[in-house]
Design goal:
The structure holds two protein chains of two kinds.
Chain A lengths: L7 H22 L5 H8 L9 H22 L10 H17 L4 H10 L3 H23 L5
Chain B lengths: L1 H21 L5 H8 L8 H20 L21 H17 L3 H10 L1 H21 L2 H8 L4
The chains are: A mainly alpha, B mainly alpha.
Amino acid sequence: MIVADAMPLQGLAGGLMIGVAAAIMLIGNGRIAGVSGMAARAVGLSDGGAPRGIAWAFVLGLPLGAALVMLFTGPIVARYPMSLATLAVAGVIVGIGTRLGSGCTSGHGVCGMSRLSKRSIVATMTFMASGFATVGIVNLMGGAW
Amino acid sequence: MVIRRTLVSLVSGTLFGAGLAVSGMLDPVRVRGFLDLFGAWDPTLAFVMGGAMIPMVIAWLATRGMRSPLADSAFHLPDTAQLTPALIGGATLFGIGWGLGGLCPGPGIASLATRPHEATVFVVAMLAGFALVTMAQRPSNRASLYGEAA
């Protein structure tokens, strides 16, 4: 069953913006616009990667861009039915997983897949499958939100 | 050059964050809905990924004709070939956390502007996860963790 409030057009428009953003990083700085890598680099938790100024500029841009959209369109829909404890556990697991796996939805999913990188294609298929399974199992256990 | 590179990065990050906001990806229920493949499926995230793919495919093709990026003297790109247990294990863990919270790193950080309370909890926890991996990968800990000679 597909939900009635899917947003294919907004998704496509926002996706194009994300793709152009990643293209600017690639063509301009010759780097992957990977959020987990840039964030780890910014706070000094990664040895390799971009100079820290570049990492900080990218990471600070993310909330700045969201704030700009909010300025023009008003409040952004963001539903948080889960507990803060769930969010904290999810955050730790996402943090460990993205560092071990060298990337997340942006670095592997957007940048790596479009490069036909074998590592990124395998990583993306793996975290998507694992995400599908996790939500499926949580729903079966009565934890849907 | 340093100022140009930093500006490029700021523009990239800002447009990235704006794209996440426009596409509904700052809403954990919508993201979780994409992962709810066997239930009430929300395909929006697939359109986001597909849309992002188009400029990036063009960008990768454009780099073939470039000796260096516009604001730097060389490309700094990761290896694409080697499949390691860390890659698979890490991606598996990431998917579990993504499914539990409905947030990945980009939307988590961008949401600091829109939902500071919840996003701070997620981002601080994520940084703690980063730190755990950094500590585990220090040479002095490697030996005990992986049984390698230090």
